[in-house]
Amino acid sequence: MSAAGCAPSKPLWLLAELTYACPLQCPYCSNPLDFHRYKDELDTETWKRVLREARAMGAAQLGLSGGEPATRQDLEELVAEARRLGFYTNLITSGIGLDVERIERLREAGLDHIQVSFQGSSEEINDHLAGTEAFRHKQAIARAVKAAGYPMVLCFVLHRDNIDSMDAVLTLASELQADYVELATTQYYGWAWANRDRLLPSREQLQRGEAIAHAWQERMKGRMKIYYVVPDYYETRPKACMNGWGKVFLTIAPDGTALPCHSARELPGLSFPNVREHALDWIWSESPGFRRFRGFDWMKEPCRSCDEKEKDFGGCRCQAYLLTGDAENADPVCDKSPHHDRVLAAIEQAAATPAEKPLVFRNPRNAKRISSTTVH
Ligand code: FES
To answer: Exposed, middle or buried: residue 162 (CB in 10 Å: 0-12, 13-18, 19+)?
Structure first.
């Protein structure tokens, strides 16, 4: 079915990136490299209208993220509106900007779920990667989240510099009495793309990490649920990114730009509408940016005739662009892609990169320095 004729399904998952502001400087942040250019954040009333419009279109899950969403002083008000509308709300936070009282206010406003991220298993690793002192506060917030009656959901982003401490990561999660732990290996977009050679772990590191994660999964059965996500680059089939372009995911960036995924604004030749100027149902159903890779007609070979295309939708458009320069190409993670060698070359290049090479931390100074750099 053509993109033009392919009726869009509902945007079931709304990700509200409330702000790009963040006190941390993680070198794998998925925010755009030029995040510092987007300072004109949506105001409270516009966010509320976006929530109403999305809910009317069938959106059911709301992710509140950033940047650090807790830097928004209207967070409680937005959560209350989302609850009133019937959303299931999930706060994705570093924990900075929260304290016991604020967690209580968010609970009273109707927040359903809080996910706290850690950069590492120790104060030393965590605070180095965060670019600031954060570890002790995160521990306190994780405990406060649990004490407030929420399931404790922890997220660790893993890469070459911390994956060898997998055992310590899971020990920390267990000490904090986590109910769910997401061991998310870095995906290479945004700042992680700029640091890919330094962050991509070796196959041996991954295998060791995976074995430790599996042993913990067995040991903690029924007590702590552990999800381990292998990085794309070591797969031979691509992920069904966003479950298909413009199919269920709708991201609203801090400045109101509506995106089919958090990285889409980095794709050249596409423009995405802003909720300040357009109604959400037009954006979702009619805007050229959302229709661009919807359905299957845009596909080239080998995706077009692939019998797995309805399962993976050709993989990730942003990854195809970053690795091949053309977002219409098959995601090169797929070993049927004629560009799969670029993934293998990236692994080799990372292996040849010394651990001493400095990481580029996410901050306005580095943003200004590298935002004009060609990305592929
Ligand atoms: Fe943009 Fe995958 S991150 S399509």
So the answer is: buried
Torsional sign, CA 243, 10, 12, 274: positive
Complex ipTM value: 0.98
Residue 64 tokens, joined: 């509140």
State the pTM of this model: 0.94
Taking only the tens place, the pLDDT of each residue in 81-100 is: 999 999 999 999 999 999 99
Domain ranges of the chain: 13-229
Ligand 1 pocket test: which of 31, 242, 326 has the largest number of ligand atoms within 8 Å of its C-beta? 242
Task: Tell whether residue 318 is among the known ligand binding residues.
Answer: no
Ligand 1 center to 246 CA (angstroms):
11
Phi-psi label, residue 325: left if phi above 0, alpha if psi -120 to 50, beta otherwise = left
d(CA 75, CA 65): 10
Residue 241 CA: nearest ligand 1 atom is 2
CATH superfamily name and code, 13-229: Aldolase class I (3.20.20.70)
How far away, in angstroms, is 133 Cα from ligand 1 center? 31
- The verdict on whether residue 306 carries a ligand-binding annotation is no
